[in-house]
Amino acid sequence: MNEQKIQEFAEQLRTSGIDGIVEVSVDCAEVTATVDADKLPSVALRLRDELSFEQLMDVCGVDYLEYGKVEWQTDSAAAGGFSRGVSGSSVGRLSFGDEVSVAVGGEPRFAAVYQLLSLKHNRRLRLKVFASDNEFPVVPTVTDVWACADWPEREAFDLYGIHFEGHPDLRRLLTDYGFVGHPFRKDFPLVGNVEMRYDPQKKRVIYEAVSIEPRVLVPRVIRKTTRRNTGTAVDTSSTSKGDA
Question: What is the residue-wise DSSP string for 76-123?
Answer without folding.
Answer: ---TTS--SSSS--SGGG--TTPPP----TTS--EEEEEEEEETTTTE
